[in-house]
Amino acid sequence: MLSPEIWNFKAPDSLVKVEKGNIVNNNCFNTIQKLHHNHLVSVVLPDTLRVPQNICETLKNDCEYYKISNVGLDELVNINFINAFVRKGIFISLSINERIDCDDCMCITPNGFLLLSLTKETYESLGLEGTPSHYYNTKQRYVVSINLLSNHFKPGKKNYDRTKDRLLTLKKMTLLINWEPPHLDICPSSVAKYFDDLKFDVQVCLPDFQMRTNYTIKVPNFTMDNIHEFVEWLGMFSLESDLGGGGESYLSTYETPQPYQEYGQVKFLQWRGFFSSQQINKLLEVLISHLKDEEKPWISLYVQGFSDVVVGWDLQEHHYYTNGDNGYVIVLNSEDYMVYQHMCSKKSYK
Amino acid sequence: MVIEINPQQQRKDNSLTIPSPTFYQALLKKIQELHGDFGAAAIREGFAAKYFNERTRIAIVRARHGPHKLITSVLPFVKEVDKKKVSLVTLYTGATMRQCFKFILNHQQKKINEICSTLQSEEEKVAIKEALLKFNSTQTLS
Amino acid sequence: MESVKGYFDYNVTDKCISNNFENIAKQLYDFGYHTIAINQTIDESLLEESISEGKKKKKIERQDIVPSPIDAKIIKGCDKLKILNRLTISFTTQDIINRIIKSPNYRKYHIIAAQPESQQAFQFTCTNFEADIFTFNPSTKPNYKMQRKLYYLLVERGVHFEIMYGPAIEDSTKRKNIIATAHMYHSFGKSRNIIISSGITNSFLIRNPYDVINLGLLFGLSDGQAKDAIQNNGRNVYMHGSTVLEFVCWKLY
Amino acid sequence: MYYYLDISFVNQDITAALFKNHIITSIKHVFGEIAAAIPFDVVKYDPSEIRAIVRVTQDHYVKFRGSLTLAGYYQGKPCAYIVHKVSPLLLSLLGDSRTYVH
C-alpha cells in the first residue's frame, strides 16, 4: 500500500535556458524571432539622466493594434482577408479573455497558420482534424492547425469550404490584431478598415507606456557568472522592491549582489500591449546603438509573452498549469550579450 | 512498518511503567506540534504505538511507509511521556513485524547477558532469562 | 448535451443563498469557476425525527422528503456562469434511499451525492446506489472501512470522490480529517476520480483555482490529477449526472 | 532557485512585520514548527493595498502556498490570502496578460 508524498513537494517545473555570446554576430536577435506574441516589454537603463526620445517612441509610434469584438472565426479564412493581410506583411492575432486551460483559444502566427486550442467537446463538435495536446495524456484538449497560406486553401476546394463551414459553428471571439504592412506607403490601419467595413466593433489600442526614475541605486556589476542573481536583481529593481541594506532584516534577507556600484539615476521603462517580434527587434537595435554611443555599463530588456496563447517558443504548444509564463531577458554590454530564456515546462502532466 | 524506540528514564532504575495509550498520545501531540495538522493527518492512518516491556523499556510504533519519516523526525524531541521525563532512542527500523521481532529477540538476549554479568548465582541468571524472554513472547502473541 | 466549461466547484452550500449569494457567485466567477453547484443536504437523522413526531403528517412528509431545488437567478455580469443543483444524502440505512428516489423533487437535481454514515450504507453506495459523487462528513472520522475493491468498483461506475477544502480552512479537526481522508483515497485507489470542491459557507473561504490545484498536491494527488480534480473530472461528473438522469427518466416513462 | 508570489491579504490593515508573522503562524498551524522555520522573504510590501511580493525556495513553495490557502483567521476574524500570480522568474510579476485590459 503506497502512501502519498508528505514531505518533499515539487514545485511546478519551468525551464530556463541561458545563452551567452558576442554582440557582433547578432545572435541575440534570433531569440526575439522565436516568440511572436509579446505582451509586456521593459527596459532598465542604469546611470542615465535623460532617456533618448527614440527609445521611448520605438514601441509607441506605429505600434497601434486593434481589438475586434465578437468575430466569427470563419472571417479569418475569408480569401479576401488572407490575400490582403495574411499573405502580405506580417500579420499576427490572438484571442483574449479566453483561458488556454479551460476555454477555446485561437492565434495566427506570422507564418500564416491559424491555430486553435480546443476543449474536447468543442473539438468533437467542430469536426476538423487536429492532434491531441501534448500536455494532457487523457486527451482533453486538441490543437487544430490550418495553413492559411497553402496553395490549395482557396474557395472551390473541398478542404477550404469545409473548414470555413465548420469554423462558422465556433463561438465568436474577441481578437487582438497586429499587422505590419509590406510597404511603408500602405497604412497599417487598413486592416481595421477591413473589419470596420464588415460592421465589426473595432477598437484602436495604444500601448501603455510608463517611465520611472529611481535615485541613488546600488547596481550590481554585470558579469557572466552571476546571471541568476543579476536577473533576480533586475526583477527586484523593476518591481521597486526592497533592495536590501536597510536595517529591517526580519522581513527580507535580500541583498544586492556584490560587487556593485552606486548610480545617481536608474531609469525603468515599460510598455504593455501587443507587440510583434519585429517591433521588439527594432527596439533592441535602438538600444544597441544607444549603448554604443553613450558607453553605458549595460542595458537590459525583458519581454513577456501572453499567458493564453496557443503556441509559445519556436511555435511549440503552450500551456498554463499554475502560471503561463514565457519570456526572456536580454542583457547587453558593449561587447557581450546574455539571453535568459524562461519557458513553461515541456513535461506532460499525469 | 515498525519503528522501535527505547525510552530511557532519567532515574537509574530498571523498570518504567507507561500505559500504551499515553505513549501514543504523547507521540501524537508532538507530531501535532512539530508537523502541524498536516503531519497529524498524514500519520493517522495505520498509526499505532505499543509499549510492551517494562524491564527493558521497549516500545513498538507502527506507521505506514512514507509518513514514518515524520515520526522518526519527531522522536528525538519527545521529552515527556506520562509526566515522566524520558528520552527516546530509535533502535531499529524495519519493514515487517517479523523483522522487528527478530531484532527485539536479539536485543533482549543482549540485555539478558548484560544483566547476567552483574548477577552472581547461576539460578538467578536462569530466572531472569526466563522472565524476560517469556514476557516478550507472550506480549508478542497478543 | 450542453457543454460545461471553466473550473468546477460542486459544493456551494445552501447557506450561501441567504448569505449574499450574488457576491459569492460573482467572486467564484471572477476566479475562473464557470460551473458551480448549489448543494442541499438531506440528513437522515433529522428526517427520522420529524416523522416520529407526528405520524399523522406522514403522508405529507413523504411528499416533502426532498426539498425542491433552489432556483438561482442568473447573476449580472456572469452570463457564462452555469449553476447546477446538487443533492447530498447523508444516510445510515438504505431504506431512506428508496423513499427519496420516489420523491418527484429528486429528479430535479443535476447531481446526486452520497454520504454514507455506516458500513451498511457504504456497502449500499458501492453496489446499488446511482450516485455521482461520493462524499464524507469532515467533522467526524469515517465509520466504515474502505477497501481497495470497493474503491475501484466506484471508479468503474463513474463515481467521483469529493474532497472539500472550505472546512479545512475553518477548523483544525476538520482539516485533519480531510487530509487523512485524502491520503486514504491515495492509498486505496491511487487518488483516482477525485474532485476537489469548496464546501464554502461564506465568501472568505473562496480560493483561487490555482491555489486549489496546489492544495491538491498536498492531498496526495499528482500534478495532472490535481488539475483534473477541478477541471476534467468535474466535466465527467456532469456527464455522469446527466446520463444517469436520462436513464432514470427513460425507465419511468 | 526561488519562486516568487504576488499576494494580497484580505482582512484589515497590518504592518509588514505582522504580515510576515501571520504567514509564519499559518505555516505552523498546517505544517508544524519544523516547517515554520522555512526561510522566506517579503521583498516588497505595499501597505495601502496590503499586497506583497514574497520569495520562497522552490523546495518549499508547495507547502508555503498550501499554508496560505488554508489560512482562515487573523485574530479571530476571517481572512484570506489572494494569490495574484506566481512565477519562478521575478520579472514576470511585472504584469499579467490575463488581467490586462486592452
From TrEMBL, chain A:
Signal peptide positions are: none
Q: Which Pfam families match?
A: Ribonuc_P_40
Could you give one GO CC term from the UniProt record? Answer: multimeric ribonuclease P complex
Q: Which GO terms describe its biological process?
A: endonucleolytic cleavage in ITS1 to separate SSU-rRNA from 5.8S rRNA and LSU-rRNA from tricistronic rRNA transcript (SSU-rRNA, 5.8S rRNA, LSU-rRNA); tRNA 5'-leader removal
Tell me a Gene Ontology molecular-function term this record carries. Answer: ribonuclease P activity
* Annotated PANTHER family: RIBONUCLEASE P PROTEIN SUBUNIT P40
Q: Please identify the protein, giving its name as recorded.
A: Uncharacterized protein
UniProtKB/TrEMBL annotation, chain B:
Pfam families noted in UniProt:
RNase_P_Rpp14 (PF01900)
Q: Which domain of life is it from?
A: Eukaryota
Gene Ontology terms: cellular component? nucleolus; ribonuclease P complex
- A Gene Ontology BP annotation from the UniProt entry: tRNA 5'-leader removal
* Localisation per UniProt entry: Nucleus, Nucleolus
- PANTHER family referenced in this protein's UniProt entry, alphabetically: POP5 HOMOLOG, RIBONUCLEASE P_MRP SUBUNIT
Which purpose does this protein serve, as stated in its record?
Answer: Component of ribonuclease P, a protein complex that generates mature tRNA molecules by cleaving their 5'-ends.
What name appears for this protein in its UniProt entry?
Ribonuclease P/MRP protein subunit POP5
TrEMBL record, chain C:
GO cellular component terms given for this protein? nucleolar ribonuclease P complex
Specify the protein name: Uncharacterized protein
Organism per entry? Pyrocoelia pectoralis
Give one GO biological process term.
Answer: tRNA processing
**PANTHER family attached to this UniProt entry:** RIBONUCLEASE P PROTEIN SUBUNIT P30 (PTHR13031:SF0), RIBONUCLEASE P SUBUNIT P30 (PTHR13031)
What is the first-listed, main subcellular location in coarse terms?
nucleus
GO-annotated molecular function = RNA binding
- Origin organism lineage: Eukaryota, Metazoa, Ecdysozoa, Arthropoda, Hexapoda
- Give the UniProt family note: Belongs to the eukaryotic/archaeal RNase P protein component 3 family.
Automatic annotation (TrEMBL), chain D:
Among SUPFAM superfamilies, the record links this protein to: Rnp2-like (SSF160350)
Keyword list (alphabetical) reads: tRNA processing
Quote a single Gene Ontology cellular component term. nucleolus
Q: Which GO terms describe its biological process?
A: tRNA 5'-leader removal
Parts forming coiled coils = none
Which Pfam families would you find in this protein's record?
A: RNase_P_Rpp14
Q: Which GO molecular function, any one, fits this protein according to its record?
A: ribonuclease P RNA binding
Family the UniProt entry places it in: Belongs to the eukaryotic/archaeal RNase P protein component 2 family.
Instruction: Quote the protein name from its UniProt record.
Output: Uncharacterized protein
